[in-house]
Predict the structure.
Amino acid sequence: MGGIVSSFFCAVVGTAFPIYASFKALETPGADDDTQWLTYWVVYAVFSLFENIADFLVSWIPFYFEMKIIALIGLQLPGPKLASVLYKTYIRPYLQEREGRIDHQIAHITENIIAQVKAALFAVVQTYTSKTDPNNVVAKLAATYLAPAEQQQSSTANSSTNRKDK
């Protein structure tokens, strides 16, 4: 079919109908169809992850996209429940075995990202409000909510000391 056309067709087959089917599943009262489509998306995401990692190898496989289209349709069919089989046989056991480590890493990464974003916002607020905020209202709010933890503790101690002095 041609790499670009086949790739585009794979994207459409892999997402367009499943998006609509997932919408329909979410709008029905039962949970069976929700589980079916959530399972599809998990398998699709794992497949996409591996495909992106092995992209240089995939490009050498003849008729890769045509085979992928057939596989995607197979994952979507309600009869054979291929997505459910792949999930229960491979993905679920793999993730269950590593769930604690994954949760720990996600929490650690999330903490670091939040700290970095808060520090960056604090720096931006400190830089740009010093000239435009004569009463330092915004800077004080930033110090309270955005400053790195060490600075928040020292500013809290300073503000409580200042209140005792008054």
